[in-house]
Every structure is written in structure tokens, then in C-alpha cells.
DNA sequence: AATAAATCCTCGCGTTTATGAGGATTTTGC
DNA sequence: GCAAAATCCTCATAAACGCGAGGATTTATT
């Protein structure tokens, strides 16, 4: 099930729902993922000032896959300088 | 074009490619988005310690849509306590 | 090759984070 | 409605951030 993230805080609801779907407490989830309970709570409440790396770690730990949608022409600029033969 | 993010640092390549596809310099992109050039560079280089809110702001500014993929059963736990009639 | 442009990196500074522990407050189960 | 559990919030501290400015290094242009 794919869900678009419209604002930074929206990721919190995803995290909470994912955790609850697995029937585990904040406390335990935080512990097994390797962050503090306080921090996980902050994420779930929609704090935007959390570190990306740690947030990603939580998403991974809860089985949430992150996907980005970019314009087609961006593809030509990925693989930085790996024989960029299609750049206009 | 949808691209899965496998590790926190991978978002950097997306940001850089998106910026280059628009042919704007770090300097200008950073300015118009409202962050420092230094910070945008950090993101593009894959720093994981940047704040989620600011990273999201940059993604938005560059037209990168963020999507998450969660297990189906998570849906029942979104809309926190809005008549959750389908929770097992 | 040489110059100019763009990106990267370091430094110091003020501010903010993440954590742990403790106690409120809310939610859940009986 | 009560008691227990879960979540939230506050506080203090060490650590790390984000910014600005300056100079290196890389990449582009002629």
C-alpha cells in the first residue's frame, strides 16, 4: 500500500500505524530498533527536527519502504558521471 | 519515475540529480529553497544527520515526491481512532 | 594548458538535538 | 468507574547541528 507524504509531519502517522499493526509498544519498538522511547514518540507525534538517518532507521525497522517519485528527465543525471551519454 | 531508497544516504543522489536536471547551481537552489549552500551540499553528499524537516523542504523545493510503501494491514491503523471499526 | 566556475571542506559560533530518568496524563482492560 | 498500562511531557547534560565565511579541490570552458 503506497501512501504519498504531503508534509514532513505526516510520516509520524505512518510510523505509529506501522508499529500498532505489529502490536508492539513504543518502548519495545524503540529498544529493538535502537533508539530511545522518547525519540520514537517524537517521530510519531510528527516532529520535523529529527535526524533523517535515525528516522530512516526507524522506518526500516518497522518495515516501511521509502520511495521517491521524480520527473523522467532526472534519470539521465543519476549514476553521476558514469558515461553520461544522454545528457542534453 | 519511482525510485526506492535503500539507505539513508541514497537520497543525496536523488537530490543532486533533480537539481542538475533543472540546471541550477547548489548556490541558487539552496537560496531559493531557503537553506544554506553548505547544507544542501551536505544532503547531496549523503549526510544522514540532517534534519528531516529541512530535507523534506529541499525535496519539495526540487519537486521530488516522497511515497512510503507499507503492508496492507497498516491501513486499519491510520486515521487514529476515527471510528476504527476494522481493527482485529 | 590556462582560466573561470562550481563544488567541497574546514573552522568557530550559537543553538538544538537525543538520551535517560522521572513524573503527569491519557488510554486500555476489567 | 477503577486500576493498570501505555504514552506523553519536563528537566538536565553531553553531543551535534546549521550557518557563514574563507580557502582548497574539482570540473568546465576557451
Automatic annotation (TrEMBL), chains A, B:
Domain HTH cro/C1-type: 15-70
Alphabetized Gene3D superfamilies for the sequence: lambda repressor-like DNA-binding domains
Cross-referenced InterPro entries: Cro/C1-type_HTH (IPR001387), Lambda_DNA-bd_dom_sf (IPR010982)
CDD domains linked: HTH_XRE
Domain of life, source organism: Bacteria
Name by which UniProt lists this protein: Helix-turn-helix domain-containing protein
